[in-house]
UniProtKB/TrEMBL annotation:
This is Transcriptional regulator, XRE family. Gene3D superfamilies: lambda repressor-like DNA-binding domains. InterPro entries: Cro/C1-type_HTH, Lambda_DNA-bd_dom_sf. PANTHER family: HTH-TYPE TRANSCRIPTIONAL REGULATOR XRE, TRACRIPTIONAL REGULATORY PROTEIN-RELATED-RELATED. It comes from Ruminiclostridium cellulolyticum (strain ATCC 35319 / DSM 5812 / JCM 6584 / H10) (Clostridium cellulolyticum). Residues 8-62 form the HTH cro/C1-type domain. SMART domains: HTH_XRE.
Amino acid sequence: MHILPERIKSLRNVKRQSQKEVAKALGKSREAISKYELGEREPDPDVIVQFSKHFNVSSDYMLGITDHIENIPSSERKPYSSELYAFEKYLKNQDFIPYLELAVRIKDSNIEINQFEKLLNKLIKQEKKQKHT
C-alpha cells in the first residue's frame, strides 16, 4: 500500500472522523475519500493540499517525504468554505460565546432548527413591536 492512502486513513481515524465527514469538509464524495484511502484513485495536488490543511499537517508528511508531522501554524490555515471563513470572525469574538453555547445546547437537545427559527423570529417581531410602541 502506498504511503498517501495510509496517511489519509490514519489521520482521519486519529481525528475520529468518518469518510463522509472528511468528504464534506473537502467538498468531495464519500466514495472519493474511500478510493483515496484504498489507493484506487490518486488525489490531484490541490486535493492533497486540502487534506494537509484539514488534518493540519504538511503536504510533505501526506506524501511520505517526511515522517515528521509538521503542524501548520493556525495563522497560516484557511477555512475550506466561505461560510467558515465568514464565521471565523465570530469565533474569535468573546461576546459570541453565549450564542455559540446556545447553538450547541440546541444541537445537543435535538431541537429541529426550523422550530427554533420560528420561535426566534416570533420573539424578534414581538421585540420590534414593543420598541415601536
